[in-house]
Amino acid sequence: MTDPKFVAFSTQKGGAGKTTLTVLAASYLYYVKGLKVLVVDCDYSQYSIEEMRQRDKDLIECSPQFKKLFSDNLRQTKLAPYPLLTAKPEEAMQKVREIIEDGNDIDIVFFDLPGTVNNRGVVNILNCMDTVIVPVAADKVILESSLAFALKIQEWLTTGRTQVKQMYMLWNLVDAREKTDLYDQYEAVFEEYGLMTLKTKIPDTKKYRREGSKTLNRAVFRSTVMPPDKTLLKGTRLSELTDELLDLLKL
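Structure tokens predicted for ParA family protein (251 residues):
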């Protein structure tokens, strides 16, 4: 068994999309691509992914439509929901190591972290990452916050204070009406600071927020127990993002 790759979509600004990107990347790679995934929810202020998993479980019990979608996927893929570990930052890495040492075959471990670099547990986790992806949007508040976060990690990299192997900025919540040269100008600034940017840009689409419903009979995109619905994938660039990630991780 090879060592799993450790990945975190991470930034200190809420609303940048790190939790949604974590869930969707994990679900797509696990249920569609067949990789063995472990998701670690360390965001102790809210444990958003744990709450999402619980909502999924509740829907299986109370929504016939959602239960059918889940059952159909289980029958087709033979994959039970991917494992989800909930742990405080200071305890997470030890628990992950125990899971790995127990002989569980894992390709990628995704970490959902609190939005701070002032927590020793968070810093210790970030130091172990193979890849940190910093979601950023063309919004002044998100842009400044995400850039400050990335520059802090860049400082650790240049001073040898971290073992992070690679870090990339990721354009998220991209408005199709915005001029593409605006992003080119921002990326030029990133490059001046020595920051690399992923090629994939994630559009601002409501699909990324579509979960199951107790009352609506509709396709599901964001879920921890099944993949994004194929009919909703077009235009989301989720498959392009995961392909680029796999290429970076050499998987």
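Residues 140-158 form the longest helix (19 residues).
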